Amino acid sequence: MNTIRMFFWDQEGRVRWGYKFLTLVLILELLLPVLLLFVSGFGLAVSLPALRERGIVDAAGILAEEYRETAEEVWTICALSIQNLLLTGLCLLFGRLLLKKKPGQLGFRGGLALGAKELGLGLALGTGLLLAAALLIILFGGARIEVSGQENLSLWLLGYLVLFMLVGLGEETAFRGYAIASMAQTENPTLICCFTGLIFGLAHSANSSFSMMGFVNISLVGILLALLALKTGRLWMAIGFHIAWNFVQGCIVGFTVSGMETKSLFIMENTGSALISGGGFGAEGSILTTVVLAAALGAAVLGRKGLPHEPEKSF
């Protein structure tokens, strides 16, 4: 009986962290897809009459050819935005019900001024590291940058900005806030950062043009973001970093974002090997991005405060 009990609970009577972490997998792989399917289906059913009236779809609900490309991109933005809103809500709900953690204990703490400051620092850090990686890729002959000249760019960029804000919120709530809270009882920051980082990398494995370098770099980003969250005890800096990293990568510089194409101010045309340019996966697939991220991670680990010693007090 004691053996069975120890299999599920630790010596302090807490459910073992692995089972808590599995609830995040349940959210990501079961609850989120089902909810997204339901919400998307409902949205389509409600909007179909208006779309038919405007000639965007025919009586059978098939998109007219002239609207197809635009509609697919709008659908991608809307679906991913809704997905990350649902992800945020599910993690906050299950965090309260299963982990017994309030939003503040999942990283949403600190006053407005502190939150804005850390969000701004994260935005600056994400922008700086992405631009450094892009510059190295260009200097080493991996890509050539050109002005895009795309039409209606301001509206598209606004849409993608909203999307990447929600992606930053949703993924940080899940992969940093919820994941770290589920592992906090280990009191092992190295394990927390590395494990959540690797899971973050694996979570992108279904993306278009995913590669081993893409896995390495996204895992490094995940480790860095977990370290930022643990050092501050809050998610704001990690959220800011995530937003800037994606938006600047896709909508300013012109790389694909983890394999996803976006509208952009500039276009990054690959001219070198995929190892240098990142190939179809974007800057996150380049070994030069690995160098930038490794340097940033090393600086964060060796910084003034070093690794946090008591994760359970932060999350």
UniProtKB/TrEMBL annotation:
Gene Ontology process terms (BP): CAAX-box protein maturation
GO molecular function: endopeptidase activity; metallopeptidase activity
Keywords, alphabetical: Hydrolase, Membrane, Metalloprotease, Protease, Transmembrane, Transmembrane helix
Presence of keyword 4Fe-4S: no
Keyword Membrane annotated: yes
TM stretches of this protein: 21-45, 74-99, 119-141, 153-170, 212-230, 237-260, 280-303
Domain CAAX prenyl protease 2/Lysostaphin resistance protein A-like: 155-248
Pfam families for this protein: Rce1-like
Protein name as annotated: CPBP family intramembrane metalloprotease
The species this protein was found in: Candidatus Enterocloster excrementigallinarum
